[in-house]
Amino acid sequence: MTILVTGAAGFIGSHVAAALLARGDHVIGIDNLNTYYDPALKQARLARLRDQPGFTFQVADVSDRAAMEVLTEAHPGITGIVHLAAQAGVRYSLVDPYAYIQSNVMGHLVVLEAARRLKRLRHLVYASTSSVYGANTEMPFRETDRVDIPMSLYAATKRADELISYAYAHLFALPQTGLRFFTVYGPWGRPDMAYYSFARAIVANEPITLYDDGLLKRDFTYVDDIVAGVVGALDRPPETGTRILNIGNHQGEEVRTLVTLLEAALGKKAIIRSAPRPAVDVEETFAAVDAIGALTGFAPKTPLSLGIPRFVKWFCDWHGV
Question: So which residues are the catalytic ones?
Answer without folding.
Answer: 154
